[in-house]
Amino acid sequence: MAEPTAAPSWLRRVTLACLVAAQIAVVLATARVHPSRLAREEWTQRVMLDGMRALPPAGLPQSVGMVELYRDGGIVILTAGGLDEIRIDAGTVVRSVLGPDTMAALRPGLTVAVWGLRPALRDTVTARAMLVL
Amino acid sequence: MAERASKAGPPDAAIALAVTVACLALYLATLTPGLSYLEGDGHELTVAAATLGVAHPSGYPLYTWLAHLFTRLPVGEVAYRTNLLSSVAGAAAVGTLFLLGRAAGLSRGPAVFAALLFGVSNTFWSQAVITEVYAPNALAMLATMLLLVRGHLVGAALALGLSLGTHMTNLTYAPVYALFVLVQAPGVLRRPALLAGVAAAFLVGTAQFAWLPLRAHVIDLFPSRSPDTWEGFFSYTMGAMQHSRAKPLATQPAQLAFYGDELVQSFTWAAVALGVPGMWRLAWQAPRAFWLFGGVFALNVASSLQLRILDVDVLLIPSHAMFALFAGFGVAGAYGAASWLAPPRARVARIAATAALTGLLVVLGAANFVRNDRSGDTVVRDFQRAVFAGVPAGSQIVAGRGAFGRDMVYARLFDEASRDFVLASVDRPRVRTARRPLYLKTRLITGALDSRRWALARSAMPRNPWTVARIVGGRSGMLLYRVTRQAPNLLVQRMDAGTAVDPAVGGPLRGHHVEPRATADRRLRLTTYWTKHERQAPIVTLRIGGELLTAYEVGHGNWRRIRGAAEPAGTPLFVERLDVVVPSGLPAGPHALDLGIVELARNGPSVRWIPLGVVSLG
Asked: Do B553 and B600 touch, CB atoms closer than 8 A?
């Protein structure tokens, strides 16, 4: 293959314009997705099941895994990437595909999808809503 | 391609080696010592490598061969050796990324930063310490790109063909590669001999898939169709991504938001903030290289997010490698901006920037070291040792069919203790099993005992069997049940002598007994007695020495079923006798054992701890 040659200025301009346009489009598109802002009553089983397929308004869950351990105020789930600690409080919405829509649905070994806040560098999710599958 | 000449001479090779060794040291320090409870595919890949068999679709022939070579190393157990392949290949991928950054025009400092940023990122690190295809695949993909950028077209074509044996998704990038070559060197279209060489090299690389029909008979490929017919072969290879569906455009924002979260998780906000302007710099400085890296980045993100799988994060590793390069260009831009200052201030700014970037790598590396440290993951090994010591010799142990039961196949291949048992997933065709005690290894959620997933003929499994948990390991799936035709005696009128009575008045736990010394294979023999007033079985969690061990429902599925059986007169107690496996990493000596009863209240779970006593570990 030939040695590299200097790129023509039109190529630089077109490339940069395409990139900036794509980045603006991504920012505008994702700005419309605010699963954390959904009101409690909007977290229905249907919304969550759609979210599992990446459909708005819930979108993909922050964590999916099997219920492994329990702590005060939370559970530990086994995900494909390791153990995630899920913090749960009275504001957490729990929905269940087969069981009751209460905290009692969080039985050992069942798979749960969790939407919430995941801070960087930590395997912790503060759960906004959970779907027991 | 680079806008300024940049060749990897000895100094670059030495730096690449140093970066590789540094990351290898991190990965080795956190490497899983054997089979990992995290990754069922790892069990299957290890067995496929050891037996030179065929892994799950798309078959991964190149990976299987490389892993087989590692199984020959005289270090650790066989699963450790295949884990080691991930570490070595992962570290080499980091060094290759450095060379790719240099070939694309990055100066040494930013290229080192980009490589190390990728090396200590969370998702990639997680795959460099277990048996999986993603770290070797990162090496294969980056090597292909490096050859391409350096202009070795025939070598790049061969590498691309070979890389399909570490992951079929590498084929996705072929159009970007082709476009890059056409933009970079359109003259290749007038060189038919070169084009023929490229095509031939690619075909030579893909010829590895002839391995699949040749070796399909070696192991049970359930649930996949055998690739020994044309239709089966196509389904096994190109059809491996058939669970992919084109999602509606309306899903794109949510998927991109998910990816943004994934980027921040892997790199931190600071690195993401470097990567975005880094894209601008690359687009302006080296637009051809941008279309190559950006194209691979965009194709990987778009195609991975289309898949209907739960562990999509690992498929995004190629895009993470590209983003790390973008961050490297962002760093180069920051250094360049410093030169606008007066010389003394510019020097201070560069020193401050270097310190900040080093700090970022240290913080990210330290956090991800903790998150990905699997050096204490002995769950599978501990459980298997407990099973082979705790089950009567001659018993039959049933695991899942095909890929679901490979941990037991591994035990048969490499654990002498397993020879005393019939393992249904291995010995089924050869051994009479009807009169042997029957055990089942897995966690039963739905009780689907007679499904095709079990490595046992339906006729050999009792109808409507009872399954009573006997050995409880450290994680999901680490459960051994005794299978019987007759209903087990799980209701008793009185507790055994020596049972401690639970002092908590009104609680469901009425009494418990634990042997004060663990067995030599580290099983704790625990008996608990429960009142059966509640419809739902209590949820129990155990901890030893302050470390959480496991959680389960009392009765393991029998709590409600036993209600319908004939009950003795009076108010019986539900009894559960379990062997609980203690991690081998826990130091010998006395440890406090506690049982927690989990309350699932409206404001979240709470655990009421009951001390069971002090147990001694040998």
From this structure: no
DSSP string, B240-294: GGTTB----GGGHHHHHHHHHHHHHHHHHHHHHHHHHHHHHHHHHH-HHHHHHHH
Q: Which helix (H) or strand (E) holds B387?
A: helix B379-390
Count Cβ atoms below 10 Å from residue B217 Cβ, excluding itself.
12
Q: Per-residue pLDDT for A2 more than 60? A: no
Do A69 and B276 count as a contact with CB atoms less than 8 A apart? no
Task: Give me the pLDDT at residue A3, please.
Answer: 38
Q: Is B5 on the interface with A (CB under 8 A)?
A: yes
Give the Cα separation of B596 and B612 in Å (integer): 10
Q: Is the peptide bond before B516 cis (omega within 30 degrees of 0)?
A: no
User: Rounded CA gap, B266 and B167, in Å?
Assistant: 21
Task: Tell me the average pLDDT of chain A.
Answer: 87
Identify whether the C-beta of residue B89 lies closer than 8 Å to the C-beta of residue B132.
Answer: no
* Mean pLDDT score of chain B: 89
d(CA B604, CA A104): 9
Strands (E), B415-478: 422-423, 438-441, 466-472
pLDDT band at B433 (very low <50, low <70, confident <90, very high): low
Interface contact A49, partner B, CB < 8 A: no
Query: Do residues A91 and A85 touch, judged by C-beta distance below 8 A?
Result: no
A24 to chain B, any CB pair closer than 8 A? The answer is: no
Nearest Cβ partner of B607 from A71, A78, A102? Answer: A71
Q: Is B596 on the interface with A (CB under 8 A)?
A: yes
The answer to whether B208 and B162 have CB atoms below 8 angstroms apart is yes
Nearest residue on chain B to A130, judged by CA atoms?
A: B604
B21-77 pLDDT, tens digit each? 999 999 999 999 999 987 778 999 999 999 999 999 999 999 999 999 999 999 999
Q: Who contacts B343 (Cβ-Cβ below 8 Å, separation ≥6)?
A: none
pTM for this structure?
0.92
Which residue of B lies nearest to A80 if distances are taken between CA atoms?
B311
Other C-beta atoms lying within 10 Å of the C-beta of residue B429: 5
Does B609 lie at the interface with A, CB-CB under 8 angstroms?
A: no
Q: Among all residues of chain B, which has the CA nearest to that of A109?
A: B476
DSSP 3-state assignment of B589? strand
* Tokens, residue B388: 């082979």
Q: How large is the average pLDDT for residues B211-236?
A: 88
Residues 258-317 of B with CB under 8 A from A: 258, 260-261, 264-265, 268-269, 276, 279-280, 283-284, 286-288, 290-291, 294, 305, 308, 310-311, 313-314
Residue numbers in A near B598 (CB within 8 A): 70
Q: Helices B343-372 and B252-285 meet at what angle, rounded to 10?
A: 140
Question: Of the candidates B314, B476, B601, which has its C-beta nearest A68's C-beta?
Answer: B476
Q: Compare A50 and B361 and report the one with higher pLDDT.
A: B361
Q: Does A75 touch chain B (CB under 8 A)?
A: yes
CA pair distance B93, B91, nearest whole angstrom: 5
Report the 3 state secondary structure along A14-48: HHHHHHHHHHHHHHHHHHCCCHHHCCHHHCCHHHH
pLDDT digits (tens, 9 = 90+) for B562-590: 865 555 556 789 999 999 999 999 999 99
Q: What would the pLDDT profile of B465-511 be if each residue is shown by its tens digit?
A: 888 999 999 887 789 999 888 888 899 888 888 888 876 656 889 89
Is the minimum CB–CB distance between B376 and chain A shorter than 8 Å?
A: no
User: What's the complex ipTM?
Assistant: 0.88
- B44 and B56 Cβ atoms separated by less than 8 Å: yes
Contact criterion met (CB < 8 Å) for A53 and B308: yes
